[in-house]
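Hello forum,

I keep getting stuck at the same step: I have a sequence, I want structure tokens, and every attempt I make locally crashes halfway through. Rather than fight my setup again tonight, could one of you with a working pipeline run this one for me? It's a single chain of 523 residues.
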Amino acid sequence: MASLTHVCMWSDNGWKRITAEQAAKLHPGGTVSAHSGLFMCELCGQYVSLTDGAVQTRHFRHSAYEKSKNCPERILGAGYSISYGSQEHDLPIRITGVSAASFRFEIGLIRAPISSLTKDFCIEIKPKGVSTTPNVFTKERLNYEGITYLPIGERPFEKYTLNFKNGIDKLREFWPAEITGIDPEGTLFEKSSGKKLTYDADVEIEKEYYLLKRGYFYRRSYSSIRIQEIVQKQFGWESWTLYIVSASAFSEEAARFFLDFHCRLTEHPVSLQPVWPLFVEGNYIVKHSQDNMYMLVEGNVATVKTFPSAAVCQLNHNVSYPKLYEVHCSSRQQLISAGRTQALQYTYFWKEPLNGVGSSPAILVTDLSGSEIESGESNTLPHHKTLLFKSTFDGELIISNNRVVDKRKIVADRQLELNGLSYGVSVQLVIGLDVVWEINFKKRQVSITDNEVEILKRIRNASGIFIPAPHSLRNILAGMSRYPQICQWIRECIREGTINEQSYRRLQDAYRSISTNKQGDKL
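Reply #2:
Ran it on my machine without issues. Output:
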């Protein structure tokens, strides 16, 4: 009997392809059960067994007790070549409104040719096989230029159907009739965007995900998995629980945890990134005006597909990743996807004049209290001289003080802490070749008046920490003898042995200004 040909085994660096002959050398005697979790079918993500070889040559085979019997190699036979069709690109579903009491869902309709449709066109979305009122949306509700997220309620369902009235058949190339919903055994969502992960999707260490499942997750103790319960909700007789989960290390334990939810832990997730010629990028859409596009494909990808079929040529064959592809854009709307058993990442290349601008990357910069910091110039340093950065794209922080003193890589959707900030320092967040956020810390130039009341008000009106009274206070006291009220305040600080740090700095500024003015008067 022919052995399964897409079987993997965990190694220190992740899941690695293995043949039945190689596995037999590692386990020379007896059957290796699927329950051992040693061998995984790369196509369906389920564990498989290695036969004992008593009757036939040792080979991998699926178990009769598997939950899913839809593995393509199981149905079509050994040697199955990985492929998927244009209808196998799931529309994005995202979880929103997450709180300690609730959550809800939205389905994203990617851009489609709807501008020529009549006003009475409408879309109906409803749970499959459930007798309920459908969610109906008219043409006016849809975004002509990008993705449209439509609410579908708060109760999870495994499948949804999408129908339209007064539409055209071409819409089915963009919006499938059936949409994969929420797996009651456990569905993962990217926490930062709320987007549901596809079957066999890649997950990363230190990145947070929502895990939603029916019932309660009876979890054991994990050394490299963090689990936090958020909310339990009751829908009729069903109870659903939402968690936040993340892997703290790239380990076999963490890999097996995510594999139970049909996702693969990896250090190189699948991604598609167009690079040339000029383009405008949005959600699931890349606008361009050329016949050929070049793009980088990152991660463990088995195939790159185009619909309608178009010429795709890999230009750098001798590298593991990223791989550079040239795509001949034969159609005005060209679907480009990268995947393994099914599409994991996809986008539409829309050929049209570039008369718009791309959306800026989402950047969030806060201080330690969570207050957002705007780009620009600042006369005050953040609390504890620290800023927190988070970006939707990989980038780089450039820290300079008249010259570049440090550079830090920033990874998409991972928070980066930058401390030790001071006056005179500039920080730039660069994505690609663009500076998307920048701040300059400059000490405010204070004009010191000769009015004793104003000076005293300024040095007293300060907040922050207290420091031991410096010895230089006595020199300042001697130099400001013509300001009796200020001198009295300085004596009180000397007597108490402490002074507010900010008050001391302001007092120094006033003293220097007064001393400079005195020298000018003498000249």
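The two ends are 105 Å apart (CA to CA). If your local run keeps crashing, start a new thread with the error log.
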